[in-house]
Amino acid sequence: MLFVPLAVLLGAASTAVASPMNPRALPTPVSAATARTYLASLTVEAESNSPAYDRDLFNHWITISGSCNTRETVLKRDGTNVVTNTACAATSGNWVSPFDGVATTLASDLDIDHLVPLKEAWVSGARLWTNAQREAFANDLVRPQLIAVTDDLNQAKGDKDPAEWMVPLSSYVCTYVRAWVHVKYYWKLSVDSAEKTALTNYLAKC
C-alpha cells in the first residue's frame, strides 16, 4: 500500500494539485449540543445478536448514478483531482483519511467505512428491519455514515463502538462521535450502557 505522510505530500505537491489537500467532509453531523440531546433520547439496552448477524442482509454497494456505485461515489466526494474510467472506478486522485490524517494517491488503499458498522447496527436494532431498510442504511449518503479511510484502520475498527475504539486523530474525535450519535438517532438504533457512557464523556469535551 502506498501511504504518504500528509506533510510530505503537501510539501511535494506538483502543479497538478489545484489546491491544498484537506480531508473532505462527510455530510455535516449535528452539533455537539444537539448530539447530547439526541444521545439522551436513545434507548439504552444490551446488544442482541439473535438472529445471528449476516453481512449479506445489508445489500451494498448499490448503483447511485449511471455506472457509479456507492463506494465510487464516496471516493469521488472525499478525494481531490479524482479521475475515473468509463466504469466509474477511480484511476487516480488524492485522498486524506480523516481518521488518521494519512494521505494516499491509490483508491485501492481505501475502504469506505460505515461509521456505525453494519454489525453494530444489527445488534442495535437493524436485525428487526426489512431488507430494504438495511440496504438504505448500508448506502446512506445523506447522513454522516460513509467515509473513505485507510483500509488497515477500517479493519482495525471492525464492528467496534466508541466504548471499544476511537479514531487516532484527536482533532477528529468530536466529529466522529457527533456523527455516530446523528446516525444512531436518525435510524432509531439503541446504545448499550458502556457505549452511552463513552459517548457522553467524549461529547462533554466537544
Automatic annotation (TrEMBL):
All copies of domain GmrSD restriction endonucleases C-terminal, residue ranges: 105-200
Superkingdom of the organism of origin: Eukaryota
InterPro entries according to UniProt: GmrSD_C (IPR011089)
Keyword terms: Signal
Annotated signal sequence range: 1-18
Pfam families named among the record's database cross-references: GmrSD_C
PANTHER family to which the protein is assigned, alphabetical: AMP-DEPENDENT SYNTHETASE_LIGASE DOMAIN-CONTAINING PROTEIN-RELATED (PTHR24094:SF15), SECRETED PROTEIN (PTHR24094)
Name of this chain's protein: GmrSD restriction endonucleases C-terminal domain-containing protein
Organism annotation: Crucibulum laeve
Species lineage: Eukaryota, Fungi, Dikarya, Basidiomycota, Agaricomycotina
